[in-house]
Sequence to fold (456 residues):
Amino acid sequence: METVPDLLESLRNLRAIGPVPAAAWDGPRRWWHGPLDVEGLAIGSVQAAATALNALTASRRYKVSTVRTAQAFDSLGHLRIAGQPAVGFAPLSGFRRTSDGWIRLHANYPHHAARLLEALSVSAEGHVAGALLELTALEAEALINARGGVAAAVRSRGEWIDAPVHGAVASLPWIDAHQSPGPAPTGKQWRRSSDAARPLLGLRVLDLTRVIAGPTATRLLGALGADVLRIDPPLIPELPDAFIDSGFDKRSSVADFGNAGDLERVRGLAATADVVVLGYRDGALDAFGLDAQSLVQDRGDVIVATLTAWGAGPWQQRRGFDSLVQAASGIAASYGTSNDGGWRPGALPVQALDHATGYGLAAAILALLAEREANGRGGVARMSLARTAEELFSVGPAGGDGTDGVLPGPDYRQMDSPHGVLRFVGPPLTVDGSPLDYSEAPVAYGSSEPAWLSRP
Fold:
């Protein structure tokens, strides 16, 4: 049986994880075409979460289904909302030519689209192509990001390695996790449930994440029984279909951090949470006392998991998304193709950086929970999409031609919801040989009280 990359190396320093064997997996090993081992990254990231879950539950009952992993990494593509496919990228997002190459734009959110048009001094989408042809890729990247838009020049792998940001990112472990220093708090802490399908019952998870990676992590925690409460800002709502795709087994509330009453409520939730997951641009929550350093300083038993696009270095506070990291890091160039229209960059078959980072973040949280059960102390985990891109390159090129594994038809589930009947795929794990499933449909956006449920 072909092996998969062990992505848990960066967590092996935790005593609860160190001696635990990697979780088992079954199913095809390869199924996507392409030059990079995206399957290895996908299976390895889910295996990391399953292994940490086995450590937490002192068992080997959680395993990886590669068939369900392939489906879960394309969950938005499989989703149907009242019979309609989910909306992916907006028309203004995507690859565009510049005077010397290519740039990737991200304009799914209306405010990013508006800033992009403003940066290029155009009033309509139809004028974007012409404006970009007047600029080099690097000039357009700098201009758009300086004006609050989101874009990344398409770089070769070598150009990315030579860029200053690469060295800062590559020097980090894939999952940077450590326990909080000092003595353990003396108060009563959460303990896992004996329910194999929902071992996280009663775990309080404050979800301050958006888009795909962070919500993927918290969606898995919710499927395992955690009380996941997601908080979003009222003025910049999440994209509706992305919210539904990642909203299973969660509750949803909105809060304006600029409003003193709302901020006080959210900080109260953070003060009583077991886990806080942060997915905003680095530094965006510092002024509200909701950054990792402030949270762990207040409480020695809380687990804080953070993710950003670029991780460290000169782009640490830059906005970013999976597609932009693919463009900058050399992935888009690796998947480029040539035809009669010349060469153009390509993309991974799924948004694998987002999903792999999400499952890695879940692995870190589960590992820190296992460690906390032993000594009572919380901890901090940090990840970035850019570092996950480095992990993809490090697992090596794809073997074979991508057709040696035949995937069966998707294992679709169906559930009523406030959004209509949903057709969807489930989580990538099995429990004692049976698929792990979601229990609750996504709620209406912002419909939940900003309060924890009663502990079981």
